[in-house]
Amino acid sequence: MHEKRFSHIAQKLGRYHESPENIFLPLGYGADHRQLTRSFKKNMNRSDDIHGVQKLTLPNPSPLKKNNSSLFLHLPLKKLGKTESIFTDRNLGIFDDRFKPIMLSIMNRQLAVNTYYGNELIAPASTRISIELLKKFDTLKINFTVLKKEISILENNERFDCEMIRLINTQKHFFDSLTQENLPQVQAQVKAFVSAGLSNGKSPLFQLLQKKYQQLHPFLEAACGVLTSDKKYAAVSISLNQIIHNDRLVFNKKTMGETIAHIVKMSWIAMIMAHELDDFREDEYRELGIICLGHDTGKAFIPQEILYKSGRLTQLENEIMKSHVLFSFLMASKDQSFPDFNSFVMGLHHVKEADHLAQSYGIFHDTPTSFYRYLNPDARNRLDQAYGLTKKFYRIVNIADTFEAITASRVYKKPSSIGKALDIMVKENAKDRVLYAPYLNTLIEVMIKTLLPENQVFRITDKILDLFFPAGDTTSGQRAYMKKYHRGIIVKSCKGLDQHLECLIFNMALKKDRKPVQLSPRLFLENLFF
């Protein structure tokens, strides 16, 4: 299936160039290619001036074409008044003649899981839905959109091919722009911005980690220096520059936007994990820092309406988002004839651990966005030879990347607590073995040891009281007294989520121990945000 698909791409795009400057895929040719090139040239001279500094800027990929509205049937439930209903007014919704053919085919069936997001529901024509659930949508005033026509796998693949050709040409223009004279100025600006981020995390818990592991800061600073001075990383630093610029446009602020904040925070997490592991030598810390700071630079090529979308991504948008792994590899290598270790790991940072996902090299092996599929034969051989050496790097980057993503606030979601994030990762790993368990256990241990150390004093909450006093055994006055005048202290910490902290609860006024207790670290971590 995929071999035919990639053969189809090759026929569409032409043959590989033999030039040593060859990039991962041949450029398109013919009328389509000329049209794409003209569209990008319009964006090539865009000038952006933030804080008076002229920037080297990537040509911004043009927006994806919107799907033809005639393909949709839309129930604008959100626009209905509180007393209006698609079930009481036959002209408002599902009983309208326009909706009968599509709605009759999906009534009295169950809606597929995970198709609802926010206040929008978009479902394919074959979606199975119950009339009761549709009534629930009506009550909640959730927009419900149904495709009149199924999009076939072939149509989806062709759309993806077109988007990849467009992004490839964007990248071609990007590499051509690296000879501009103001490159040193851009590199210096990126270095100053990222360095400031490495030292000034806003979250109190993030600051606590930085303070405790301050000996790792010089390694991250050295990594930042390499990425913003070494010639071979010119594409990486300009990509970081573009991400900083995009973040500022979207979030309208001078501080770090969500993409750069993610890069900085996950770099710290990965370095801290490496420090706690026996697998990493100190002379490898800088290399790990380079890989972490450069791991998401491919997002500079992802269209902004996808990268910052507040709702659920479509299948096509999701595949385009996944291609950032491929572009991160290209930013760090540029020339497939001489790919290096760091560029490989940047492309592997989403690799999964499960045996049935072997050779996934960045994305699940059964998707078209796995960058391994786009490598020329020589680069594939190099990666196969280096693969064993990359494991400990991509394993740690994958875990740090996943943890930060879950705990962070995004335009499409609220942040999850540290406890919830760790629970999600443990649960998913037990199910599909996507993460390297020993390294995941190290992350858990680091969080518990740092945030719940011995001699840490804590307040008494209703939840703690409920654990030791059955309902009805204490009056509201007694509970209020205990919460006001009693405190707890961690006497002995633990290493895992399923272990217990040895604690004492004591009366502050009388300075007297009251009760030794064992508390789960989840009790505290579920309320701590990174």
What can you tell me about this protein's structure?
There is one protein chain. With 530 residues, this protein is of the alpha+beta class. 49% of the residues lie in helices and 8% in strands. It is built from 21 helices and ten strands. The chain has a four-stranded mixed beta sheet, with no helix packed on it. A four-stranded antiparallel beta sheet has the order 7-8-9-10. Strand 4 (116-117) and strand 5 form a beta hairpin. Helix 10 crosses helix 18 and helix 11 (285-294) crosses helix 15. It is globular, with a radius of gyration of 27 Å. The model is unreliable at 1-55 and 108-118 (pLDDT under 50).
Q: How are the strands of the largest sheet arranged? A: 3-6-5-4
Spans of 5+ residues with little confidence (pLDDT < 50)? 1-55, 108-118
Write down the overall geometry: globular
Please count the helical segments: 21
Determine the N-to-C terminus distance. Answer: 43 Å
Cα-based radius of gyration, to the nearest Å: 27 Å
Strand count, sense and barrel status of the largest sheet are: 4 strands, mixed
Total number of strands: 10
Mean pLDDT: 76
List its traits.
21 helices, 530 residues, globular, alpha+beta, 10 strands, four-stranded mixed sheet, disordered N terminus
What would a concise description of this structure say?
The chain has 530 residues and is of the alpha+beta class. 49% of the residues lie in helices and 8% in strands. The chain has helices at residues 2-13, 30-44, 100-104, 131-140, 153-176, 183-199, 204-212, 217-227, 234-251, 258-276, 285-294, 304-307, 315-322, 324-333, 341-347, 377-407, 418-432, 437-451, 462-468, 476-485, 522-525, and strands at residues 49-50, 53-54, 72-75, 116-117, 120-123, 143-147, 457-459, 486-492, 501-507, 512-519.
